Task: inverse folding
């Protein structure tokens, strides 16, 4: 097996651009050599337990699906998720049609004056 001629140069170039030890410690690639391994292990286990406790607390205190439905965060579980957007669009369309119909059926101001509901001063101009 032959070694290419530029291998030592490549190796020197890569070693020259290698990150320093503190950078590797900061990026959590290697452990800090200043701290004893037993202490590092206890610190890591403590951090892991702390995260577990935090997640357990969040799971224990999460809101119920019923309260999320009431707050409009979750949609109705009776409808398939793929159809929920279509259901919402349909409900909005029905509401819009109902409002447009009610606006068209609204009595004219002159009719309201004749019925005594409005006075001549209250009629919009």
Result:
């Amino acid at each position: 097996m032959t070694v290419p001629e530029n291998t030592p140069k490549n190796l020197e170039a890569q070693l020259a651009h290698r990150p320093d030890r503190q950078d590797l410690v900061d990026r959590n690639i290697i452990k800090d050599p200043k701290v004893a391994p037993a202490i590092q292990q206890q610190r890591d286990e403590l951090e892991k337990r702390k995260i577990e406790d935090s997640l357990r607390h969040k799971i224990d205190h999460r809101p119920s699906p019923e309260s999320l439905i009431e707050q409009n965060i979750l949609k109705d579980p009776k409808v398939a998720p793929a159809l929920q957007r279509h259901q919402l669009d349909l409900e909005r369309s029905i509401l819009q049609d109902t409002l447009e119909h009610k606006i068209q059926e609204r009595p004219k101001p002159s009719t309201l004056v004749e019925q005594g509901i409005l006075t001549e001063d209250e009629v919009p101009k």
